[in-house]
Structures are given as C-alpha cells and as structure tokens.
Amino acid sequence: MNKDKPKYKQIIDAAVVVIAENGYHSSQVSKIAKKAGVADGTIYLYFKNKEDILVSLFQDKMGQFIERIEHETTSKQSAEEKLFTLVETHFQQLAADHHLAIVTQLELRQSNKELRYKINNVLKGYLAVIDNIVDEGIREKLFRDHLNRRLVRQLIFGMMDEAVTNWVMKEQRYNLEEQARDVHSLMVYGLAQPRS
Amino acid sequence: MNKDKPKYKQIIDAAVVVIAENGYHSSQVSKIAKKAGVADGTIYLYFKNKEDILVSLFQDKMGQFIERIEHETTSKQSAEEKLFTLVETHFQQLAADHHLAIVTQLELRQSNKELRYKINNVLKGYLAVIDNIVDEGIREKLFRDHLNRRLVRQLIFGMMDEAVTNWVMKEQRYNLEEQARDVHSLMVYGLAQPRS
Amino acid sequence: MNKDKPKYKQIIDAAVVVIAENGYHSSQVSKIAKKAGVADGTIYLYFKNKEDILVSLFQDKMGQFIERIEHETTSKQSAEEKLFTLVETHFQQLAADHHLAIVTQLELRQSNKELRYKINNVLKGYLAVIDNIVDEGIREKLFRDHLNRRLVRQLIFGMMDEAVTNWVMKEQRYNLEEQARDVHSLMVYGLAQPRS
Amino acid sequence: MNKDKPKYKQIIDAAVVVIAENGYHSSQVSKIAKKAGVADGTIYLYFKNKEDILVSLFQDKMGQFIERIEHETTSKQSAEEKLFTLVETHFQQLAADHHLAIVTQLELRQSNKELRYKINNVLKGYLAVIDNIVDEGIREKLFRDHLNRRLVRQLIFGMMDEAVTNWVMKEQRYNLEEQARDVHSLMVYGLAQPRS
DNA sequence: AATGAATGAGTCTTCATTCAT
DNA sequence: AATGAATGAAGACTCATTCAT
C-alpha cells in the first residue's frame, strides 16, 4: 500500500507546510515536490492528482485528529467532562500545529465545492463523536432530552470552528487553549444567568 | 458616485446569480458582464478589478442584511428577545434569497485569503450588533457577567453560520427558519437540563 | 463570421509554414501565434483548439484545391481529357506550394486517428469529383463499364497520392508535373502493351 | 544476437496488439511491457528506444511479408500472373492479420517523419520485388517498354496501399481479397475499353 | 539478465485586464 | 460612457528512459 511508504508521508507533510506558507493558490505541485525532496512526477506515483493530495492530507491529519479526541474523551466519566475534553483536545491539537491550523481553517476552504464535499465526509466521523457525547449526556439526564441532535452537533462544531478560525486570522496572537473552558461553558450552560 | 448608477447595481446582482449558478471558479468576468447586459470593459468602469466586484457585492448585500437585523432587533424589549430576533432575521433573510445564501456560505469562501480578510471587516459591523445585544443582556442581568464577550460573539456567529451552511449544503431541503428557536435556546440556555 | 476576418487567414497560413518547417510535433501553438504575429490567446478567438487549426487548415486549403480542379476539368470535353486535367492540376497545385505539399503528404498524417477521419471527410468531396469523371467515361464508352467504381476512385487517388508523397520525400528534387502524363496513361491504359 | 531470444519476439508481438487496440498515441512503453509480461526496463535490454521497437516491428513483419510474396510469385510463369499473385498475397496477408493491418495502414503513419523514412527503407525491398516483375513483363513484351519504371512501381504500391487503407478504415467490413482481381486488372489494362 | 521506482522536460489553454475606437 | 478584440502569463500532468538492486 502506497500510504505506508515513506514518500507518501513526506509529500503530505510538505504539502501542509507549503500551503500554510504560500496559500492554497500559490501552492504549485512543483513547489510541493521540491519541499518534499522528490521529482514532480513522483507525486503522481502516490496521488492521482493535485486534489488527491489535499483530500489525502485532510483524511490523514483529520483521521489522527479525531482518533486522538476519541481516545482522550473515552477515559472521562461524565458527558460534561467528555465535552470539555473534546473542546480542549480540539484546541490543543490545532494550537500545537500552526501550519495545520492555517491549512484546515483557511486554505482548504478555498478549494472547490467538490473537494469541500469530500472534506465534509471526513468530518462526518467527527460529528459522530460529538453525537455520542450528546446522547450520553441526555441519557445521564445532564442534557435536555428534547434537543434537535442533528442541529446540536452542528452548533457545537460551529462554535469550535469559529473560535479556531478567529484565532488563526488573528495570527494566533492569543492563547487558544485557554478559551476551551469558556467555550465549553457556553455549550453547556449557554449565556443565561444560573437560575437559583 | 458610481454606486448609485443603475449599472453598478446591475452588475452586482448579475454577479450573485452567476456565482450561485456556476460556482465561484466558473464565474468569469465575461459571464457576469453578459448576464448584466454590459460589455466586459464596462465592468472596469465601475469596479477596480474582479475582487472588487466580490467585496462590493458582500458589502452591499451584507450592509442591507445587517441593517435589517438592526432594525428588527431595536424594536424588541429584552436582550433575550433581541437575540431571538437576530437569529430569526438572519435565517429568514438567507432563506428568502437562495442565491445569496449559496454565495455567502459556499462560493465566496473559495476566494483567496486577502478577500476573506476584507469580508471579515464587513462582518465586524455584524459582530458589533451582536456585541450590543450581549452587553444589554449582561446589564439586564439576564446573561452572565463574566463572559468573554469577544469569544461569545464569535460563538454566536459561529452557531448561526454553521447552521446556515449545513442547510445550504443539504440543498436547502429543510426549513431553516424553524431552527431559529432551537438555536436561540442553545445560545441562551446551553445543553444543560434546567436546574430547578 | 470569423472565417472572413484577416486574422483567421493569417493564422492558417502561419500554421502551414510552421508545420512544414518544423514538423507536426514541433509545431507548438505559441510558434504558430508568433509566426502569425498575434498573441497565443488570439488563436483561441478563431479556433476551438489546436486540432481545430489543423482541420480548418485542411478544409480551407483542400476546398480551394478541389474547387480549382473542378473548375479546370469542366472546361474539358472528354472524360479522358478531364482525367488528365485532374492529375495535372493536382500535381500543379502541390508543386506550386511546397509548404502545403509537405503538410498534406507528410505532417498531417501524423495526426491522431480522429483528426484523420475528419480529414477523410473532406477528401470525400474530391472522391466525388473523380467519381463523376469515371461515370462520364463509362457513358462515353471510353472506359470499361463493369468497373467497381468505388474501388476505381480509390486507386486513382492512391496513385496520385503515392506519386506526390514520393516526390515530397525525395525532397522535391524532380519535376512532379512532368509525371502527370505517365500517371494518366497508366490510369487509362494500364501496363499492357496496346493490342493491335 | 538479441533478435533470436524469446523476449524479443514477445515484445514485438505485444507491441502489434497493443498498438492495434489502443492506437499509436496510447501505446506507452509500460503498456507494451505489461502485455509482453516483462518489466519496463527489460524493453531497453532488447531495443534502443521506443522508436526502435516500431522500426524492428516493421522490419520483422514486413520482412516476412515480402518473403512470402517473393516465394509465391517466383512459382508463377508470366509477369501478369506474378503481378496478380503479388496483389493477392499482399491482400491475403493483411486480411489474415487484422492487428497488423491496423498497425501498418493507420497507426504507424502517425509516427514522426524520421521513423517514416526508416519505414520507407524497409519498403524499398518490396519496391524491388515489384520492379523485377515489371522488368520481366517488359522483357516478355507484355508490358509497354517506355514506362517510367520508378513511377510505375510507386503507382502499383499506391494502388494496393490505398485499397488496403480504405478497407481498414471501413473497419474491414467487406472482403479485401476479392478486390485483388479488379486491382490487378486496373494495373494491367487501365480504365480503357479494350480496343478491338 | 531482470526489475520497477524515480526522474523531469515539455505544452495547451484560460481568463482578468487593457485600450483603440 | 461604452465597447469587445486582443493580450500573455501561468501550471498540472504524462511518459520515455535510467539505474540501483
């Protein structure tokens, strides 16, 4: 399988750096090849075409991303803790890899609609993880039980995504991970004053 | 001022339709000119370049969009009501103009980073409106007072934006406006079971 | 109509010279544009793509070629004379335009099968002209009446074509037109000794 | 000598099939190697380069082709009979090997000029065979003695070649061998009505 | 002798923008 | 003000050939 060969990883990693540094539209295949230390043609031994590099990049990185989140959350007891860990791990991972953050939050969104649909498919795996936590919270009677779950998971994702995108657009000048607590709090308790 | 001349509006409106129907990358200047009923060169009498059409389009449409939301919210009494009206009007307006929804949620995001920064500047006006409502809610002691307001407005926007984007990507097959109540509820009360 | 604009002709004529001098596979669009004195992009205002230049070139030149032959032959009385005039005019025209001869006999044949089918369609008009002469000869009882006419026209064309191709491959070092009499004689009387 | 090794023949035969089935321009070295059951690199142990495969293919197949024709014709008595046998055997052989017919009549002609000159050299052997028959006919006083023999052999070849090419382009939907008699007749007696 | 992974040169076409009319 | 013909820069991908094993 091509995916286990070292050049596959080399090219993916080169693509992340090149796209983060040059922007999506200035990331020619030849530039990626050069950064990866291979010939242009070699790219095409491992990827069908340029779009395939990007889809693979996203699948690869997001696969690990989601796996890590799944792993961290399962060790937690309550749905509330799990949700916090999800937000925290989401922020942590992107804060730890600035290049990847730029690529996922800004550059990859400039791709055409078709590619974005493929990306969305990868994200379905993530939405499923969120779903499970919400379900658990409802079973625990921690969360309200008449929630529109399809909508809830969108909103949870939307909140985190917007928070990260803002942080990237502000050139990562503040600490993203510190926001995890507030974001989590908003998710769970909303804006309202606790009713006593 | 060019902006008041009829052709300016003609071109902007043509651009919305052309981009919604053909996608960002298949919306050549010549196609927009044709739809607008003017010569290619005429475009450049009203806009500096292609990007300027898109920025102007966004400013124009978003200006009206925000104005309408401001107008609707000011007539409401409480911050809670205002927030609901904001979500409702946000959803209403995009549901009423499918072309515009496609353009703002999907197509314009494929533009380059530079254009997206300009678009973000336009959105600052919207974020200010949200800010004011949150402030009011805090003053009314309806909302918690230790909220990170910069973050809160991002999350509010992120929730609505994600909800609309999903609706557009699902090809607008369900009723978006009906979700306003749930989204508002999530914003205000979060996921948690009301504590009695 | 594009075909009447001066640049259309300019580009066609440039293509003939460039292809004759450089060979089919070394005739880049940019080379043709340069020789025609227009920008690369201008080519695409007049032709759909590179292949379209070649098909149009062939249609244009062959159209004139055949027209000229038709014109010359109609003024002759007998089928025998007409056939001679056909061969003579065929040879004359190609001998008068060395570039065109190289292109039609050698270079255009390197095109892909698809293009060659299109070229063959153009040649059908020529075969029809030959057909008419053969028919007339048969009616005049000059030619045998049990001839397979579809085959006969192929053979007549094949003889001329091979003669011209040989002349081009021998770098046009001998006089092609002088061969018209012998070729005509072979067509009409064959190899055999006249029986007395 | 490489030519006697089994892989040499394997590669040549694979090339004929691959080119006939895929066309000249879709017949990559790797495709030929795969069909021949050898590695890409192995091709270069037996052939200098891709062109050398094609030239060798032509030499090989045409060598046998011409040999067979020589063999069949020598057993005939008169030049007229020999010429008929030549046409008949020419048609027979190509009708018997459709792949080869496609390759020689259509696909190999798409090769570049250089390759076609080499192919022409191979054909000189064939032209010599034709020459001999014409000479014999003249000596027998069967054929006219003031014929331009260089031209005559071209025309004889041109007639057969055009007949076969047409048959291939018509997708071999009629019987080629049946045309041998008519073609021969045209060669020997021409179009003219026998003079009594 | 045989392999096959790696190489890297080479080109058609699109489309935002200009400018003579 | 309006036109639209003309411009020309820019990049993904293929495939014949090599060479370390």
TrEMBL record, chains A, B, C, D:
<dbReference type="InterPro" id="IPR050624">
    <property type="entry name" value="HTH-type_Tx_Regulator"/>
</dbReference>
<dbReference type="InterPro" id="IPR001647">
    <property type="entry name" value="HTH_TetR"/>
</dbReference>
<keyword id="KW-0238">DNA-binding</keyword>
<feature type="domain" description="HTH tetR-type">
    <location>
        <begin position="5"/>
        <end position="65"/>
    </location>
</feature>
<dbReference type="InterPro" id="IPR013570">
    <property type="entry name" value="Tscrpt_reg_YsiA_C"/>
</dbReference>
<protein>
    <submittedName>
        <fullName>TetR/AcrR family transcriptional regulator</fullName>
    </submittedName>
</protein>
<keyword id="KW-0678">Repressor</keyword>
<dbReference type="InterPro" id="IPR009057">
    <property type="entry name" value="Homeodomain-like_sf"/>
</dbReference>
<feature type="DNA-binding region" description="H-T-H motif">
    <location>
        <begin position="28"/>
        <end position="47"/>
    </location>
</feature>
<dbReference type="Pfam" id="PF08359">
    <property type="entry name" value="TetR_C_4"/>
</dbReference>
<dbReference type="Pfam" id="PF00440">
    <property type="entry name" value="TetR_N"/>
</dbReference>
<dbReference type="InterPro" id="IPR036271">
    <property type="entry name" value="Tet_transcr_reg_TetR-rel_C_sf"/>
</dbReference>
